[in-house]
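seq:
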Amino acid sequence: MSLGIKTVSILGVGLAIVAGGFWYWLTLSFKKLELPPSVPVATEKQLHAWIEIQTPHVFTANDANKKELHNGDEILKGDTIQSDATSHATLHFPDGSLVRVQPDTKITLTEETFNKDSGTLTMRLRLWTGRVWCKVVNLATPNSLWEVKTSNAIAAVRGTAFGVEFKNGISRVMVTEHKVSVGIIDPKTERVLREEVVIVTTNTFMSIGDQQVSAMAASEKVLVPQPMTPTMLKENWVQESKKADEQLDKKLQNLTPVESKSNSNKLQKSDRDMIRKEMFLKPLEEIQQLRDKKVTEPVSEPTVAPSTEKVSPAPVASSVQPKSLAIQAITAVPLVGVIEGTPISLTATLSMSDGTKRNVTASAEWSVDGPIGKIIKPGVFIPELGNAVSELGEGDGTINASWKNQATGEILHAKLPLKVQGKVDTDINPGG
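struct:
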């Protein structure tokens, strides 16, 4: 009898071991199915903003530490971001919304939470100086909150596009889609003045200075939005942001089911998740894969760049690639018969695969062919006839720019033909 009990016990233990081993193998198999090797783990769990660097030299400026940011870096609550005079970057949020950071801008992400189940995003941004352009997609739920705050204004929106500028104590809020609620803040108390908000609608703007706030605090004066002027609408950062918004809207429309195109509130959760994956997770996954590839690839010969070498731009995200490079002159008149001695400002602009344009003037390599002048710094040309053609009174040549994509190694070139005329001496010699 005892032998039978022992035999059963041994068999029971053996079966338990086999069953436990099978369950362990089964659990590992499901884990492998949930997180395939081709998808980075960070992507699956990504619920925070990440940054895309269009042109380099964007830094975190947390406390005394300063660290350059790269494509795909995570941005967390409390992070302060600062761009230099030529930097462009985009913050991507989990619901598909964006913040485009312009040059010479400093911002702090004061709050950012995202509920994956409900799709609710809370985003609060402090703009210390510079410009940001916000594109809040219509996927945002009614409980979502999006705010941009300066020292004397706070803009709150749902499903819209707008720009906020803060320089020299003046806030400017410009709206190109739908409407934005703007509250006036007293810089001394940091509280909203009289708990009132002003509604800024499509193609209107509001400008708020500290003196206006003081006047409002002492009276019942109310600020009224004004129509955006033609000059404002032609500002490069406004035009580029609007074009990028149009491309984003087209992409959203293509991803949105037919029955929900007229009303985003009809979107099912599965549709919202799919769109967010395409808008937020997929580009990040591609960037992470590109970074992993660069880390694992062997380097045949280490090279040391000389200290005088121009810093190359950061890699462009693989989801959006440059197609062509163009040179444009910043001048009110056509470049016909340029007179020597007058400086000409130039821009080098990339046309991207998503239809947007990016200014790479500072990171491009500049040169001149022909006896027509010289480049004194990136984007600045001085017309000057060479000795060989000075007696002829004019010369022909080209201004050249080249830009290298650090992610692919491809180099794009652009040329601007130019005719330069000698400066005519208009002084008259009375004795002649």
